[in-house]
């Protein structure tokens, strides 16, 4: 029964991937590094028997309705249209792009499957937005063979042919962050935020759920992976995605700060300090009378009064988890980040000192990512993390009430990291309220 269904699907797949199949098999023998990896567009995945089924296919690990989910519900399919709206066009005017936003590489780099003409294996429309290959990699070379029967060898072959390893939580997060945090080749800086772009913010687990997810959870059900626990393992997959995702993001944020400090943007503009790395509310707030000013009461630990602080808010929750997992490594991470905070919270942050502080935090964050991606999760570790996080949140108002009374070194450090920005969502509130 299962086999029959599989065979029918295989035949249909072979049919719908016809021409690509031939190319794919050819490329399998060719060395992928010699053959440029080419994109074929989302239409190549849309056939009903491939990924365009209306409903999830029963008894298949692959849902096969991915295209339908993407085109109907996923915001990525509308990413190009975001550029053609009022906000996009106004941004293009303010930024003097010299072209409409939807014609500008600066925007298309993240809002579409934007490739060099020679990287196109088939014609497709840029208006289709962020599509399959933005996340799964250029498909021409593996399109044919990826419809074969599922096996670890096939997956490895597909990866060699240019497929992105979205199964690996670290690679997956890196992929999302290319657009949701930015790289030196495509980024959202304060100039763009001031022109109307939302501040970028990302968290793997919740963003994957909102996306909406077009894959089965938990990933551990893949061949060769240990079977999930009695609860199906789904709960722990979410905890793992959340925690490993945070560590990867911290590493990527340190890398971003490094290239910004080094002035390594593709356009070679020397913008420093980059305001988007600082606490938004250091500059964006209304003035209050001295008696109402929590800032004055709070003081300006670690910086000259009035200098904007580094934005460490996105690290505040992760550090609680880090302490649960490995207290010694968490302390090392704290020290590295404190050095970043100290350098960045000066009026004219020294670029070389910032780059060096941020770079030295990268390997520590990466070690956490690798550990959190593979550590076996269970209810004990999840509960400890949750308790740590809620306790930390409960403590904060109390700590604020005790302001000035906390002079011991550890608390002082925590305080300085935590006071940098009240919320990671400030860009969004700036946009949406
Ligand atoms: C580094 C990648 C990146 C670049 C470059 C980029 N964007 Fe975006 N843009 C995003 C992401 C990611 C979002 C979604 C943010 C979110 O909701 O978390 C977004 C959201 C938007 C939105 C809001 C859409 C909505 O539905 O609310 C507009 C408008 C927009 N971008 C326009 C532009 C314009 C115009 C440019 C070029 C000047 C540009 N973007 C360049 C990544 C990028
Ligand atoms: C914004 C990124 C993104 C886009 C766009 C996207 N995917 Fe995915 N896709 C993912 C992620 C992340 C996973 C989960 C990987 C995992 O856990 O194995 C996934 C999983 C899948 C899987 C299951 C893979 C497996 O081995 O279990 C299929 C099939 C798939 N996607 C097909 C598509 C198709 C077809 C499209 C376009 C219509 C598409 N995806 C668009 C990110 C994306
Ligand atoms: C090629 C760039 C790109 C990649 C890669 C990418 N995204 Fe996005 N994403 C965008 C853009 C652009 C938007 C904004 C679309 C809009 O609002 O019109 C967006 C929007 C979203 C949204 C909607 C946010 C909101 O405010 O509603 C979610 C959720 C999301 N992405 C999750 C992910 C996840 C998870 C991954 C990785 C598996 C990922 N994205 C990979 C560019 C990308
Ligand atoms: C060092 C100070 C500083 C920091 C830090 C800073 N900004 Fe700005 N921002 C400014 C200035 C100055 C302007 C221009 C204001 C004007 O012309 O009135 C501005 C303009 C803006 C605007 C457009 C003006 C408006 O009211 O709509 C937005 C949105 C914005 N910033 C968001 C952010 C976000 C989000 C962050 C944090 C990621 C941030 N800013 C960090 C100084 C800062």
Plain-language structure description:
- With 433 residues, this protein is mostly helical.
- Among the domains are: 1-69 and 114-164, no CATH class; 254-284 and 291-432, no CATH class.
- It is 53% helix and 0% strand.
- It contains 21 helices and no strands.
- The chain has helices spanning 2-16, 18-29, 66-73, 79-84, 86-94, 105-111, 132-136, 140-143, 152-160, 169-180, 190-194, 204-210, 234-262, 280-283, 294-298, 316-325, 327-344, 351-374, 379-401, 409-418, 426-432.
- The chain is globular.
- The chain binds heme C (4 copies).
- One heme C binds at residues 190, 193-194, 199, 275-276, 278, 280, 282-284, 308, 426-427, 430.
- Residues 75-76, 78-79, 82, 110-111, 130, 134-135, 172, 175-176, 178-180, 207-208, 210-211 line the site of one heme C.
């Amino acid at each position: 029964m299962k086999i029959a269904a599989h065979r029918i699907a295989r035949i249909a797949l072979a049919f719908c991937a016809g021409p690509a199949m031939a190319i794919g098999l050819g490329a399998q023998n060719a060395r992928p590094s010699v053959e440029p990896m080419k994109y074929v567009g989302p239409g190549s995945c849309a056939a009903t028997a491939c990924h365009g089924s209306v409903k999830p296919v029963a008894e298949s690990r692959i849902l096969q309705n991915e295209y339908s989910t993407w085109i109907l519900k996923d915001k990525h399919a509308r990413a190009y249209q975001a550029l053609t709206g009022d906000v996009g066009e106004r941004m293009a005017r303010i930024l003097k792009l010299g072209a409409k936003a939807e014609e500008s590489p600066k925007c298309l780099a993240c809002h579409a499957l934007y490739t060099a003409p020679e990287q196109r294996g088939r014609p497709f429309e840029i208006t289709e937005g962020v599509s399959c290959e933005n996340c799964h990699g250029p498909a021409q070379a593996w399109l044919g063979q990826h419809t074969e029967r599922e096996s670890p060898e096939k997956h490895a072959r597909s990866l060699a042919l240019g497929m992105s390893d979205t199964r690996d939580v670290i690679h997956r997060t890196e992929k999302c962050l290319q657009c949701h945090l930015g790289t030196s080749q495509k980024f959202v800086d304060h100039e763009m935020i001031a022109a109307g772009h939302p501040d970028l913010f990302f968290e793997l687990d919740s963003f994957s759920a909102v996306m909406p997810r077009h894959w089965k959870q938990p990933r551990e059900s893949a061949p060769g992976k240990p079977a999930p626990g009695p609860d199906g393992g789904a709960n722990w997959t979410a905890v793992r995605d959340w925690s490993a995702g945070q560590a990867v993001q911290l590493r990527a944020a340190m890398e971003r700060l490094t290239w910004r400090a080094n002035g390594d943007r593709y356009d070679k503009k020397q913008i420093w300090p980059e305001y988007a790395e600082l606490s938004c509310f250091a500059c964006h707030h209304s003035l209050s009378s001295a008696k109402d000013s929590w800032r004055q009461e709070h003081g300006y630990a670690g910086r000259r009064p009035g200098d904007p602080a580094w934005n460490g808010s996105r690290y505040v929750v992760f550090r609680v988890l880090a302490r649960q997992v490995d207290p010694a490594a968490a302390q090392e991470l704290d020290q590295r980040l404190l050095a970043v905070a100290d350098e960045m919270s000066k009026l004219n942050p020294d670029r070389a000192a910032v780059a060096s502080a941020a770079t030295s935090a990268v390997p520590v964050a990466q070690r956490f990512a690798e550990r959190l991606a593979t550590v076996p999760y269970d209810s004990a570790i999840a509960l400890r993390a949750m308790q740590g996080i809620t306790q930390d949140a409960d403590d904060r108002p109390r700590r604020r009430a005790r302001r000035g009374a906390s002079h011991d070194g550890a608390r002082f450090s925590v305080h300085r990291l935590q006071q940098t920005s009240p919320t990671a969502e400030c860009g969004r509130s700036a946009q949406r309220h």
